[in-house]
Structure to design on (298 residues):
């Protein structure tokens, strides 16, 4: 069985969880069979290179999310959908398949989870940006100005290190969805902010996947801190890149945005957690799916 997920060259904590989590639950990858396992990520959409490369292999969907496009997602008898991430993904497929929540909640069944959850709190408030926000701003400097702890979304020190960083926080402010998800899993109250995702990821995709997850854990109405990311700044970033940093259209505008980031993040006082009873139900459902799939692959 091969674990299939998006691999960013610079790293991305949410996607990288796959390579750390699934071998602990279902064992190491095994090239002797033709099973492709899809877990954490929003990768179910037509013409995704990851999926087209799988061709006629048997594909197991274990909590993966639909990525909204203008075409309905097509699948055939080679697909075995154990469960989807949330109700929006299920609705997109005409409610023919069960949803539970994001597959990352399977973390609660790894041996080290109890240890991770009990990690001593070292940071009052931590911030995790979206991984594509890293190249636009110096987040370590921003967090230093705020007096908050910076958690990199790139998992450059390994997934377990990032998990410990989240667990070490009393509160997490996150633009990265899997920052918030792992905080929820480890019962760290979290708050969402939006900055670059409407442009770097696209509003349709970003809002769909967040709502897909939030509805699945019973949080249908939360406050999100929206920080305006001017499109001129985005264009300026690429102009600088193409011109080898010789052209800087909006240097001062970027400084204004940094000030706005600091002002808005410092004023956040709303944090969220799913209810313990909902987590208990999720645990039961995911445990059943894990045991059932283990019995199939042994």
């Amino acid at each position: 069985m091969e674990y299939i997920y998006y691999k960013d060259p610079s790293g991305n904590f949410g996607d990288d969880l796959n390579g750390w989590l699934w071998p602990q639950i279902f064992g190491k990858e095994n090239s002797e069979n033709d099973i492709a396992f899809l877990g954490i990520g929003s990768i179910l959409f037509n013409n995704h290179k990851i999926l087209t490369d799988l061709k006629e292999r048997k594909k197991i969907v274990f909590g993966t999310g639909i990525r909204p496009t203008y075409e309905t997602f097509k699948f055939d008898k080679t697909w075995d959908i154990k469960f989807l991430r949330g109700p929006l993904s299920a609705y997109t497929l005409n409610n023919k398949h069960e949803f539970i929540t994001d597959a990352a909640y399977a973390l609660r069944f790894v041996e080290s989870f109890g240890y991770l959850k009990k990690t001593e709190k070292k940071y009052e408030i931590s911030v995790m940006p979206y991984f594509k926000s890293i190249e636009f701003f110096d987040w370590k400097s921003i967090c230093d100005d705020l007096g908050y702890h910076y958690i990199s979304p790139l998992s450059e020190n390994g997934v377990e290190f990032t998990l410990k960083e989240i667990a070490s926080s009393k509160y997490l402010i996150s633009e990265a969805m899997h920052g918030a998800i792992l905080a929820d899993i480890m019962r760290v109250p979290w708050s969402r902010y939006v900055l670059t995702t409407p442009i770097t990821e696209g509003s349709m995709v970003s809002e769909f996947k967040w709502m897909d997850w939030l509805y699945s854990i019973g949080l249908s109405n939360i406050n999100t801190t929206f920080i305006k990311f001017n499109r001129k700044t985005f264009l300026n970033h690429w102009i600088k890149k193409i011109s080898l940093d010789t052209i800087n259209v909006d240097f001062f505008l970027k400084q204004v945005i940094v000030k706005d980031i600091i002002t808005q993040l410092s004023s956040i006082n709303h944090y969220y957690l799913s209810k313990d009873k909902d987590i208990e139900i999720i645990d039961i459902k995911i445990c059943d799916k894990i045991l059932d799939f283990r019995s199939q692959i042994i």
